[in-house]
Amino acid sequence: QLQLQESGPGLVKPSETLSLTCTVSGGSISSSSYYWGWIRQPPGKGLEWIGSIYYSGSTYYNPSLKSRVTISVDTSKKQFSLKLSSVTAADTAVYYCASVPFGGWYQNWGQGSLVTVSS
Amino acid sequence: EIVMTQSPATLSVSPGERATLSCRASQSVSSNLAWYQQKPGQAPRLLIYGASTRATGIPARFSGSGSGTEFTLTISSLQSADFAVYYCQQYNNWPRTFGQGTKVEIK
């Protein structure tokens, strides 16, 4: 059973870059059957898809965030990462990482990491 | 971008009753639709993928149906553990998109 764990700072200043890492255990991050994704949820609101990455490095991003988002993968560390630049208070959210079989549905989720943007 | 619209926003149901949740896509997503359950303070949990295939460990009281643009999640006999928010998500097109959620509350 795949397990995912987010890590990173819980507080980021406005205009700075949010950085989170997701560590995968219980399976191979290099599996050809999986993409790896990031989703966020502002307090009290719904789910927003951020982007997905394949182990080869191919990425797909939400057009609304594309100019600020970078998702990367480090297969040697069994990790994939999210960087979101020029953050504002609107980027305050719980950020989830998840496994995405065949790039489709979100099967296994991390517990979530609350990131607050504030000075 | 495909817009996913869920209805109703809130559904009040008594334990033991049936709950029917709807999800509509702004264009066809074939059967590339998933449903998730989220309880307060928890990550979402996958219930259904492929519009009707239950994920591992999901009880049979949860069922999904539909294709194209109209989808339904049915909970046949609501238990206390089922009161939560439910989201649909399409994975037919990029970007992936979620519905805004339906809250199932105790009547």
Give an account of the 3D structure:
The complex is a heterodimer of chains A (119) and B (107). Chain A has strands at residues 3-7, 11-12, 18-25, 34-41, 48-54, 59-61, 69-74, 79-84, 93-101, 113-117. By secondary structure, chain A is mostly beta strands. Chain B is mainly β and 107 residues long. Helices cover 0% and strands 50% of the residues of chain B. In chain B, strands 2, 4, 5, 6, 9, 10 and 11 form a seven-stranded mixed β-sheet that branches. A four-stranded antiparallel β-sheet of chain B has the order 1-3-8-7, with no helix packed on it. In chain B, a hairpin with a 3-residue loop joins strand 5 and strand 6. Chains A and B meet through strand 5 of A and strand 5 and strand 10 of B.
Question: Strands, helices and their partners?
Answer:
The complex is a heterodimer of chains A (119) and B (107).
Chain A (H helix, E strand, L loop, with lengths): L2 E5 L3 E2 L5 E8 L8 E8 L6 E7 L4 E3 L7 E6 L4 E6 L8 E9 L11 E5 L2
Parallel strand pairs in A: 2-10
Antiparallel strand pairs in A: 1-3, 3-8, 4-5, 4-9, 5-6, 7-8, 9-10
Chain B lengths: L3 E4 L2 E4 L5 E7 L7 E6 L6 E5 L3 E2 L7 E6 L2 E6 L9 E6 L6 E2 L3 E5 L1
Parallel strand pairs in B: 2-11
Antiparallel strand pairs in B: 1-3, 3-8, 4-5, 4-9, 5-6, 7-8, 9-10, 9-11
